[in-house]
Write a structure and sequence with these properties.
141 residues; mainly alpha; Arc Repressor Mutant, subunit A; three-stranded antiparallel β-sheet; 5 helices; flat
Amino acid sequence: MKPLKNTRHERVVQNIFNGMVDYEAYIKAGYSENGARASVSALLTKPNVQARLAYLKTQVAKRGIGRKEQKLLVLEQIFNHSPLPDQITARDRVLAISEHNKMAGDYAPEKHAILGDILIEVVYKGEHGESVTNWGRKIRH
């Protein structure tokens, strides 16, 4: 997608894309501070502005995925001794495996849920066959 025809609109989109707060992006693009919040809000509802911002975000996402895949490939090559096998040490291979695992999400944290209070009760058999809890209270069968 080509840049927006209105250069100030394009600057607003670029500024927002680069992390500026929307009304600051609007002012930085050359618009007045008076009514900037309302004006930038109206600008961001325009379909061409929304499309341009979405396009920029998808392009970065695509490049990020490509770079990640390329990095993973390089790490696999290091592990397999593909580039310069006589200069790759065992330490390099271990580091490559570790980095590959991190990038591939193998070190993702596990999720656990606590579903409420849990009561653990240990029941022992008494001397005469009766059930006794770990607090010494008898349990009826």
